[in-house]
Amino acid sequence: MSFWSQASSEPRRQHRFLLAFPNLGGYQEYLAKTVTKPSFTIGETEHKFLGNTYYYPGAVTWETVTAQLVNAVAPDGNAIFYRALYAAGYFDPGDQQGKFTGDAANSDFPGPGTPNKLDAQAALGSVLIKEINGAGALIGTWKLNNPWITNVKFGDLDYSGEELLNIDLTLRYDWATYTGGPGDNSMRIPAANMAAANRSVE
Predict the structure, then answer these.
(1) Residue 48 forms part of a structural domain
(2) SS in 3 state form for 84-103?
(3) What is the domain range of residue 116?
């Protein structure tokens, strides 16, 4: 039955979503303005034979997700993502110098380091993009597995502007898993892949 002729069936709406960062201290879901849903590309390899070209699927690459958040005063949007940088394993030159020179004020640092995947993932947790309906019920969830931040823009200041200041994020992840809402049987997956798919949506 089409959604325009049955009130109980309706299309998904762009403005009905929640963006969750479980481990990002200070972040609140109401700060999110936009987020792109996960997308993937399947590589291809070609083979030429007697004037014809044949294509074969290759590796799957999940594309980056971007999000825009309101840069709030409380909670402090600048501080949230500034701390996330250090939580990812970053040491600024002052911290590194203190460790090398034995500065007492920096003696608690374990050593000069750089951002690494383990710490960067721990700073975010599993990022969740939750789609909801008009009643607020969950109708689908995208989970970004092993996500980490690749880019943060804290917004531009302008004396002539009155718009809200935003924070733009780019997230890299290894793969995404999708879980439908209650009673959703719309996923049609070949039998050979069903076991793997069931594990992914649990």
Answers:
(1) no
(2) HHHHCCCCCHHHHHHHHHCC
(3) 17-43+58-201
The pTM (predicted TM-score) of the whole model is: 0.77
How many folded domains does the chain comprise?
Answer: 1
Task: Give the DSSP letter string of the chain.
Answer: --TTT-TT-----TT-EEEE-TT-TT--GGGEEEEPPP-EEEEEEEEEETTEEEEEEEEEEEPPEEEEEE--TTTTHHHHHHHHHHHTT---HHHHHHHHHT-GGGTTS-S-----HHHHHHHH-SEEEEEE-TTS-EEEEEEEES-EEEEEE-----TT--SPPEEEEEEE-SEEEEEE-TT-------HHHHHHHHHHH-
pLDDT in tens, 157-167: 999 999 999 99
Q: Is residue 4 part of a domain?
A: no
User: Residue 188: its pLDDT value, please?
Assistant: 46
Domain for residue 181, yes or no? Answer: yes
52: in domain: no
pLDDT recorded at residue 24? 84
Instruction: Report the CATH number at residue 24.
Output: 2.30.110
Q: pLDDT tens across 171-194, in order?
A: 999 999 999 876 555 544 555 565
